[in-house]
């Protein structure tokens, strides 16, 4: 379901206003709502000796794609009208953004394969799902040519030789709440739902947002080094792959490998750690040719960056935590700055995977990185169950609850 939208998008809080009021939940309701990297370029070695790019999960024909998009946009407009509360007026621009963000794509599993002609790399990767979604046992492995690989270490960061197109691994589809992430500690780093105190983690719905605002995921072959303090944020890395917010119109699926281009980056300061959030667009998106830097996002999708800032500021408040802070007073830095951050994190990962930096509890087993002491062959891996594709387990209705945060909306 398309979540209700508002034309009054929240504004970032200027530092001068800090301390003049505390944001807090006031009520809730329920809605049904470089060298190594060059080696890992598309022409480099892989388990199958071929790595040419194309997004997975696309319709098999252009006609099918056009028909599906047309139906989706029509349905979206009807849903938007039918789900709006009384006296709630939606501007034409808001409806346009809703249509832009309404499409969905489906995951290929071990028995399916589709690859439009744009590129072939993404279509090489499929998902192998173990256990039912929304359970503690659920795992999503990424496989290539039937062999499980690590989305952290084996998927190339760059999808072309010019290093202008990057691979992104989708962890969390837009408008969903399950906090899925690449597991740093498990062999081959499958995607799994985060757990706290023995329970699955879900993000809260902070009005007017439903779940995550974007396809949320990570760049492979990147690492935010916890041993390095960034000179501008004055905080160390968060020990994770680099986080990515993909703002295109297709709703992705966990384990999808998208090809994207970088537009900008925000620096969230989360528990005294730098947690970069890179803003990207799927290269196959209809708006991709018009979005080339951060100012283009504001021009063509006005309000999205402000909403992104607001989402990261308040999303932990319903769980009793304080408002998050940003470096650079919440500014989204431009493409050049973001590209430099990506390269820094790629260089940090290179040190990690080649044994020049301590991995701590990070599992570094991989199948493709020549210089890595943790490289193995497929026959050295323990057996991994076949794809199960089980129906999702029921989710507690409380996950759909909406929280109204004081001061969150303009």
Automatic annotation (TrEMBL):
The prosthetic group or cofactor this protein requires is: Mg(2+)
Assign the protein's first listed, main location to one coarse class: cytoplasm
This protein's source sits in the domain of life called Eukaryota
Is Magnesium tagged as a keyword? yes
Q: Where is this region: Disordered?
A: 1-125
Location in the cell reads: Cytoplasm
The EC designation for this entry is: 3.6.1.1
Ordered alphabetically, the record's keywords are:
Cytoplasm, Hydrolase, Magnesium, Metal-binding
- The annotated regions of Low complexity compositional bias extend over 24-77, 100-119
Query: Which Pfam families does UniProt cross-reference here?
Result: Pyrophosphatase (PF00719)
Q: Name one GO cellular component term.
A: cytoplasm
A GO BP term here is: phosphate-containing compound metabolic process
Q: Say which enzyme class the record assigns.
A: hydrolase
Does the keyword Metal-binding feature in the UniProt annotation?
yes
Known catalytic reactions: diphosphate + H2O = 2 phosphate + H(+)
CDD domains the record matches: pyrophosphatase
The GO molecular function terms of this record are: inorganic diphosphate phosphatase activity; magnesium ion binding
Q: Which family does it belong to?
A: Belongs to the PPase family.
Listed name of the protein: Inorganic pyrophosphatase
- Organism of origin is Venustampulla echinocandica
């Amino acid at each position: 379901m398309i979540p209700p939208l508002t034309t009054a998008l929240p504004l970032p809080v200027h530092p001068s206003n800090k301390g003049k009021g505390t944001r807090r939940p006031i009520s809730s309701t329920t809605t049904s709502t470089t060298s190594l990297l060059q080696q890992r370029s598309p022409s480099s070695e892989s388990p199958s000796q071929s790595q040419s790019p194309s997004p997975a999960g696309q319709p098999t024909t252009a006609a099918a794609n056009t028909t599906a998009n047309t139906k989706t946009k029509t349905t979206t407009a009807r849903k938007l009208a039918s789900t709006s509360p009384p006296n709630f007026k939606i501007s034409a621009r808001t409806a346009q953004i809703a249509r832009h963000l309404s499409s969905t794509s489906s995951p290929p599993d071990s028995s399916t394969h589709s690859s439009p002609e744009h590129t072939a790399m993404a279509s090489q990767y499929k998902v192998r799902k173990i256990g039912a979604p929304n359970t503690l046992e659920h795992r999503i492995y990424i496989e290539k040519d039937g062999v499980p690989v690590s989305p952290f270490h084996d998927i190339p960061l760059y999808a072309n030789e010019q290093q202008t197109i990057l691979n992104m691994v989708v962890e969390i589809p837009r408008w969903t709440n399950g906090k899925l992430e690449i597991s740093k500690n498990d062999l081959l780093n499958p995607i799994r739902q985060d757990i706290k105190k023995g329970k699955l983690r879900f993000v809260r719905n902070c009005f007017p947002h439903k779940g995550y605002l974007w396809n949320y995921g990570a760049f492979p072959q990147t690492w935010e080094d916890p041993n390095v303090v960034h000179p501008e944020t004055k905080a160390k890395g968060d020990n994770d792959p680099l986080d990515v917010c993909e703002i295109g119109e297709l709703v992705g699926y966990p384990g999808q490998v998208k090809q994207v281009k970088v537009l900008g980056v925000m620096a969230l300061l989360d528990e005294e750690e730098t947690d970069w959030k890179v803003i990207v667009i799927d290269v196959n998106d209809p708006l991709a040719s018009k979005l080339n830097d951060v100012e283009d996002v504001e021009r063509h999708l006005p309000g999205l960056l402000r909403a992104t800032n607001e989402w990261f500021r308040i999303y932990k408040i319903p769980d009793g935590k304080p408002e998050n802070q940003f470096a650079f007073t919440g500014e989204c830095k431009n493409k050049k700055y973001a590209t430099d951050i990506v390269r820094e994190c790629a260089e940090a990962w290179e040190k990690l995977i080649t044994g020049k930096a301590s991995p701590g509890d990070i599992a570094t087993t991989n199948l493709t990185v020549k210089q890595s002491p943790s490289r193995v062959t497929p026959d050295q891996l323990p057996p991994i169950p076949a794809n199960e594709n089980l129906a999702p387990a029921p989710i507690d209705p409380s996950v759909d609850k909406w929280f109204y945060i004081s001061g969150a909306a303009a």
